[in-house]
Amino acid sequence: MELDNLKSLWNKEDVSETPEISPEKQRQLHHPLERIRKNMRYEFWSTVILMPFILIGIWFFPLPFRFNLYIEILVICMTLVTAFFFSKFFKLYKEISNPALGTLDSLKDLLHQFDLNKQYYLSFYLSFVPFFVCEMIIVIESIPHTHQYTNGYLTLVFIGSVVFGLSTIYFIGNWWFKHFYGKYIEKIEILVEEMKK
C-alpha cells in the first residue's frame, strides 16, 4: 500500500530541468566574464614576457659565479612553479570560454571554479615564500663579512627584510586578485543570486 502511494507521488511530482538563463541575464554575464578572460590573458602574457627579462638581467650583472648560479636556479624553479599554476589557470580560462554556460547549474559550477582559482592564487603567492627566504639568505651570505656588520645586525636585517617582503607579497596579491578578478566575480555572484529567486 505504502509503495503504491510513493509511486503515485513520484509520478505526480513535476521534475523540471535545470532552469535556463534568459538572454538578458546572459548579456549581463557576458561583460564580467569577458573582463575576467581579458585580465587572464594580460596576466599570462605579462608573466611570459617578464621571465626571460629576469633571467637575462641576472646574466648581464657582474655577480660572483656562485651567487649568479643560485639566483638562476631559484628563478628557474619559480618559473616551473608559475607554469604549474598557469596550467590550472588555463583550465579556468577554457571553462569561461565554454559556450554551454546556459544553465544556472553551469554558472554555479563556474563560481565554484572561481573559488578554486582564488585558492590557487593564495597557494601561488604562498609558494613564493621559500623562494623569497632563500633569496634573502643568498644576498646576506654574499655580503662581505666585516666587523661593522654584527650577527645581531644581520639577523635584524634578514628578519626585517623577510617580514617586509612577505607583507608586500600578501598585500599586492590580495589587491591584484580583487582588482583584476574579484569585482567581476562579485557581479556574477549577484546575478546568480538574482536568478535563484
TrEMBL record:
UniProt superkingdom:
Bacteria
Membrane-crossing residue ranges in chain numbering: 42-61, 67-86, 120-140, 152-177
| Record keywords, A-Z | Membrane, Transmembrane, Transmembrane helix
- Native species of this protein? Epilithonimonas lactis
Q: What is this protein called?
A: Uncharacterized protein
